[in-house]
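[agent] plan:
  1. take the single chain provided in the ticket
  2. run structure prediction with default settings
  3. attach structure tokens to the ticket
  4. add a short note for the reviewer (M.T.)
[agent] executing step 1
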Amino acid sequence: MGSTSLDTFLEMMAVERGASPHTLAAYRRDLEDAAAALDQPLDQADGEALGLYLRSLASRGLSARTQARRLAALRQFFKFLVLERQRADDPTSVLATPRLGRVLPKTLSPDAIAALLTAAAALPAPEGPRLVCMIEVMYAAGLRVSELATLPVATVKRDTGTITVRGKGDKERVVPLTPAARRALVAWLQVRAGQPGNRSPHLFPTATGDPIDRRHIYEDLKRLALTAGLDPATVSPHVLRHAVATHLLSNGADLRVVQDLLGHQSIATTELYTHVATPQLQSLVQRKHPLARRG
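[agent] step 2 finished; step 3 output follows
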């Protein structure tokens, strides 16, 4: 594959689709892996060569989900080439998507989240107030870790009871905060005022004013889980996001409300959480969700 084709594709994904650096890096890895496995430039590959490549992934021990992700990257790439008239055909149109089993979201119980908050509150400043604030905001607003890491301090200083979140595709959504999250924010802002980087536009800055690295958030939660007596393997920012959806739905929240809160593009993504909730929730969805009565 010519590097020009790949670079132009990634530039389009960044500018027109608002793809994050993490997403762009994933596309680059997947497409470069395919290019390295072929005997011809990737942008000239035919369906047969791409099919052989995808089948080789299974022999390398890669999961069906990884295979499907690689195929999705190839489809986006060749769709781009066709639209740009760099190719007359799309060789991925003849390729079948690997069959995927349903992977249910992992979640945490309310007691486990309470244990995390108790463990965080016992830590000295600035770590304790920062972690309490992070957990309360994530749990209240269902934030992705990237959204939390780059959350502007300006959006919480207005004290409107809501925050404005910039999510995937550079789309904004306004989400409400619980009283506990608002109290945690006030406490953290007081501590933050005396910390290095306090002039940063980010709510959780490093000493140099940059946004906190999301890997740092992952590591903090793993350590906190140990302190709280929880299995660190069960705790992550994304699991907290899953917990928000599951707990809201279990308490009768409307699917559309949860979809808006989490910033899901498709309600099908939100509906997946009904499979990890209680039988009462599944019954509630069948009775009240408008799409459940179709067919």
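[agent] step 4 note for reviewer: The chain has 14 helices and two strands.
[agent] ticket updated
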